[in-house]
Structures are given as C-alpha cells and as structure tokens.
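Morning - flavin-adenine dinucleotide inputs below, output right after.
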Amino acid sequence: MNKLEADIIIVAGGAAGLAAAVAAAQGGARVVVFEKGATTGGTGNMGMGPLGIESRHTRLKQFKPTRDEAFEVFMNYTHWRVDARLVRAYLNKSGDTIHWLESLGVEFVEPASYFSSAYPTWHLIKPATGKPGPMASATMMKILTDRAKEMGVRILLQTPVQKLIKEGQRLVGVLAEDQAGETMEARGRAVIIATGGFGDNPQMIKKHTGYDFGRDLYSFRIPGLEGDGIRMAWEAGAARTEMAMELIYGMPEVMTIGPELHEACRQPHLLVNLLGERFMNEAILPNTTFTGNAIALQKDRCAFLIFDDAIREAMEKDFDFLSVVFPFPRIGDFRESIGKAREQGYQHLFTADTIAELSSRTGIAPGGLRDTVAAYNRSCAQGYDDLFNKEHRYLRPVKTAPFYAARFFPSAYGSLGGIKINYKTEVLTKDWEAIPGLYAAGTDACSIYGDSYVFVLPGNTMGFALNTGRIAAENALEYIRTPKSDFS
Ligand SMILES: Cc1cc2nc3c(=O)[nH]c(=O)nc-3n(C[C@H](O)[C@H](O)[C@H](O)COP(=O)(O)OP(=O)(O)OC[C@H]3O[C@@H](n4cnc5c(N)ncnc54)[C@H](O)[C@@H]3O)c2cc1C
C-alpha cells in the first residue's frame, strides 16, 4: 500500500478544497489534496463569480449592502432557521476573500446583480479568455491550482478518497484509491472535506430531497459529485443537516438549443401549469429560485410559458429582461431558432395555430388554458392584473397565431448540505461536539439557506465554498499547532 504524510489532508480540489489548500500552505502546512476528477476545480469551473460584501469594488461604487445589512437580509430571508454564527463568519470574511483572491492573481470586473431586486454582490471574474461569462471561474480555479502547486501542495488527481481514518475520537488520515486502483493511505493531523455534495447522485437526490432526476428535476450533474464526503463524514460520526437542492428552473437540456432561445423563454410571458392556471406573477421569473419553488408546487412539477406571434415579434426587437449570464438584447430570428431546435428533436418547445391545438400538443387542460387566456387578455386590456398584480408594462395579450409554449421543470445548480459544522467549520457530532481534526467546507456543509437559495445576495454558493475553505484551513492550522500534549 502506498503511504504518505502531510499536516493537512484536503479531500477534493474544487472551489472550497483549493481555497483551503492555498490558505493552509500560506500558513506553512504540508498539504496534500486528493481529487477524484482528472482536473481540479469541480463545479467551481462552471460559474461566473463569488459573493463579496464590502470588497473594495463594492465600496468604490458605494454599493450596498454593508456587512451588517447583508447579515440582516440573510437572516430575515431565512427566518433565522440557519446557523447565524456561520452566516456571519462567512459574510464578514467575503470581502477580504475577494482581496485575497486578487493577491493570488484573480481579476474581477464590476460586481453585478442577478436580477433587479437582488444586491450587486456577485463579483464577476475576468477570465483569461476574455469577457466574464459562464465558466469564467475556471480561470480562478486554475490560478488557485497553480498557486497551490507553487507553494508545494501535492495534488493527486483521479485519486478519490474512500474512507476517513479515525483513531479514538480524532481524525488522523484517509484511505484513497490511486490511479492504478491501489489503496493509498495518507496520514495527517487534520482533514478537510470538500467534495461538493451529491448533485451527481440521483439516488441520494431522491432519498434526501424527494426529487426524481429526469422526471421532475433536470439539474446540473457535475461528474463525480456523488456525496462521498457526506457519507464518509457521517460514517465518522458527523451529525446530519437538512439537505436540499439549490433550486432554480429551466427547460431540460436547454443548452442544446442555445442560450438565445433560453433567454427568449425567460421573459415575463403568461405562465401556466398543467391545469392551464396561472400560479405566480411572471414578472418575478428572473428570480429563478422563487420560480423554481413555484413550479415545484404544481402538478407534475411542470409549467408552460405561453406567448403569441406578436410577442415573438416584440422579442425580436427587444427583450424585457436582460441577463448578466447571456446578455442578448433580443432574439435574432425566433422561428428559425425554434425550427432548428425541432430538427434536433428538442421536446420542450411547442408551436400551434390555435390555443386548443396548443393544449393538445402540451397536455395542458384545454378548458383551463382557454379560460386563463381569456382572463389574462382581459387583464391586459384593462391594464391591471387583478390576480397577481403583474406590472402593467409586461401585460401583453395572447391572441395572434401562431402560439408558442416552452415547458419548464425545477432545475438546480447542485445539492446543499449534509455535514453539520459550526462557524469554525469544525465537523460536529449529534451531541454538538467537534470531531478533533475534522473540518468540512463548501456544498457538503452548506445548510445556511433554509428552504430557498439566498439569491438576493448572488454569488452565494461559490462565496460560501471559498470562504469556508479558507476558514477551515485557518482553524485546521490552529488545531495542528496545538501542543501534542493537548492531543491526548
Ligand atoms: C452552471 C453553474 C454555474 C454556477 N455559477 C455560480 C456562480 O456564478 N456563483 C456562485 O456562487 N456559484 C455558482 N455555482 C455554484 C458553485 O460553483 C458551487 O457551489 C461551488 O463550486 C461549490 O464548491 P465545492 O468546493 O463545495 O464543490 P466543487 O467545486 O464541486 O468541488 C468538489 C470537488 O470534489 C471532488 N470529489 C468528489 N468526491 C471526491 C472524493 N471522494 N475524493 C476526492 N475528490 C472528490 C469533485 O471531483 C470536485 O472536484 C454554479 C454552479 C453551476 C452548476
């Protein structure tokens, strides 16, 4: 069996694991990172940027919130059903973490918001390849990886950790499987778990959140996120937290039909369920968490965005909502795009010459859709939506054939929660005792949102991962510096 020794062992090289690795190496520790994938970065490669509160960027722009305000927003949003000390520790560190990342070579552009009622806390990363956008954060992951290696961190790729080694109450190492399929034993004085949750494990998703992947949930599945760290921590005596999906909404496999069409189907058109009934104010569609929540409550967790040819024409001139992620000002040629999608066999976009035909194609109850369209058109004519008070300027009647529908389901960036930690990221037992030498960071331990992702402060999950990674490293460094006699 291959054996190695380190001061701090980090289980995974994603956003939280790499932040922990760099911080631990800066603190003088010998660090080894075990990474299951063929590259580092994990989900951290996918996004646009982390949250930062009171960074120099937000302060220069006089952007709110302050740390105190962010904490209040966060705790009111979650109804204080989450660990306030952990939230506070994370938010307070987040501005400094932006500066720390800059000191390592990460560049940010002006902070952004995700939708109009959210705060501009999202620090968009300037990628090596050009403008900010999806996967810009891969540049940050590469920089963290390079800095870690320069400081002597050993990163073992395709070497998944399989078990934690505990002696008495204390964590002293891990067992992993190396690239040759051999068991490797690493001994250390502290272990930090950061395996990114269970977003690639449909069984765990079903068991712990109730969603049925591929039926009523079409979430991102980042390969390898199978709940390994959560399972290993539980086996080592960690307490469990509430577990959830980081819920949003979308059309299944939407990127196969292109981001332009995706944006066209996120405008504030008429939204109905399978009964043909409206169920939310469509003006809040850009808050993808709230929309995901509302869709998850409908029959078969499914909804349809309905619009007509006049709306199609308007969208070819201008979108109501412009997205930071895919900043198209309008759709080029909707009919051509929808035609291409259909040629590809895309199943979630529909066209029909009458509302009745649209019902039969989509499976929406015909009487329900007919009545809803009539009522909605009356609201548009009178300029007041007496059901949900949708803003007047988004009230456009549905009456000019052909008619279009896009089918939505809940989606998710990944999972949330599993391992109970405190504000020092120490892993706790059911008795709220810290397991000596064991820390957890990032998604595996992210149970600070209560029932809904706190999207009003965007950049939150990557922010939590990077900040708890740093916090874990700092506390692990302090722990390993404790005189040996105190270890008995
Ligand atoms: C499309 C998309 C866009 C996103 N955009 C943003 C954004 O702009 N801002 C934001 O805040 N959040 C964003 N997120 C979410 C954010 O990227 C994640 O919350 C964050 O990366 C979580 O960090 P983590 O370290 O916990 O997990 P990850 O970054 O996923 O890292 C987990 C790592 O663990 C490894 N691993 C798993 N099991 C083992 C094992 N047994 N042994 C060793 N290694 C193992 C995996 O291979 C992976 O590398 C986005 C997510 C997606 C899907």
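Note: The domain at 253-411 is CATH 3.90.700.10 (Flavocytochrome C3; Chain A, domain 1).

O.
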